[in-house]
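Example for tutorial group B:
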């Protein structure tokens, strides 16, 4: 159907943008100081605790988690409600949960 094709394009585009973003960050981190990555391949271990760039990255990760939590919680709640509706034979409503 048309909706499925459109959603497939949206998903592919979103994953491509994320992959390009993460790949770019990884490449820039490697090219910033290639000698640092001889001992470790983990970006988080390669930089110090007080590194400003890593603080920005940690802050971005926290914001990502904070913003994505409500988005993921909605479908999770809906799925739990569907299961409980089947178990209790449609005796539950949205006021219960």
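The residue assignment follows.
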């Amino acid at each position: 159907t048309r909706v499925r094709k459109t959603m497939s394009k949206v998903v592919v585009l979103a994953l491509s943008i994320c992959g390009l973003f993460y790949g770019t960050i990884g490449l820039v981190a490697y090219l910033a100081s290639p000698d640092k990555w001889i001992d470790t391949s983990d970006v988080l271990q390669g930089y110090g605790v007080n590194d400003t760039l890593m603080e920005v990255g940690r802050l971005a990760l926290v914001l990502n988690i904070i913003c994505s939590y409500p988005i993921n919680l909605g479908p999770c709640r809906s799925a739990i409600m569907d299961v409980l509706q089947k178990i209790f034979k449609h005796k539950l409503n949205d006021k219960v949960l």
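DSSP finds three helices and no strands in the chain. Compare this with the pattern of hydrophobic and polar residues in the output above.
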